[in-house]
Amino acid sequence: MSRLAVIVASTRPGRVALPVAEWFVVAAEEHGGFEVDLVDLAEVDLPFLDEPHHPRLRQYTHQHTKDWSDRIAAADAFVFVTPEYNFGTPAVLKNALDYLSHEWAHKPAAFVSYGGVSAGTRGVQMTKQVVTTLKMPALVEAVAIPFVAQFIDDEGRLQPNDTMTGAAKVMLDELVRQERALRPLRETA
User: What's the domain count of the chain?
Assistant: First the structure.
């Protein structure tokens, strides 16, 4: 079965990213199209890019980079669970993307974004410029959660509405199709 990495792109204390990601992981597992790996960048804890060589060379000198490379290489598709910070990509996500090159290539990327009125969509647009440069087709299908605080219950869990649930299914269906279509490119790379 293909592997989906759901990457939590916020490390800030009090973040909403984790409950949003936990909801999405359950939705992805119920969908059944992928084996799901929850990747929390707070746990990965990459330092600011500290490799002396360009990632395209794959001459990694630090164990944290080798571990990150292995984890990303094992995935066939990605969902980034992300807010926007100052209308842009969270720095921790940009840093995680910049560490690698080949490991991302020919794997589709989708987004679950959240926030206030814009639902994190401005940050997603900025991140799409980065992932496409890494040869990751960015899906149009997405889950955008505006005013996310109203969907967090007293236990800190996300309580999705029908729009979110429906959008997640449509996005996962398309991720499955794109991952299958891109597989021959990954196998010959």
Answer: 1
